[in-house]
Amino acid sequence: MTISAAPRRDVGLAHRVDATLHPDPARVLPQLFLPGEEFEVTRSRSDGVIRRILALPEDEVEVLVGDLLAHGTTRHYQYTEMLLKHAATVRAHISNAGEVSAARQLLIGASFTAEVAVEGGALCNPSAVPHPDQSGLADGELRLAVSVRGIAEGHISSIGFATAVVRPGPEWEFEPRTLPITSPTVTEASWSREHLRRVLDDFDRLDEFAYAVLDRLDAKFSRKKFDTALAKAQIGPYGSRRVIETTAVMHTVLLSGYVATFPPDVTLDQQVLFPHSPEESKGIEDARFVLFTDGDGTQSYRATYTAYDGRAIAPRLIISPDLRSFRTQRFAGAAAVNKGMALFPRLIHGRHLALCRSDGETTSVASSADGVVWDSAVAIHPPDLDWELLQVGNCGPPLETEHGWLVLTHGVGPMRTYSIGALLLDLRNPARVLRRLTTPLLRPLPSETEGYVPHVVYSCGGIIHNGVLWIPYGIGDARIGVAWVDVDALVERMEPVRA
Question: Are residues 403 and 463 in the same domain?
Answer without folding.
Answer: yes
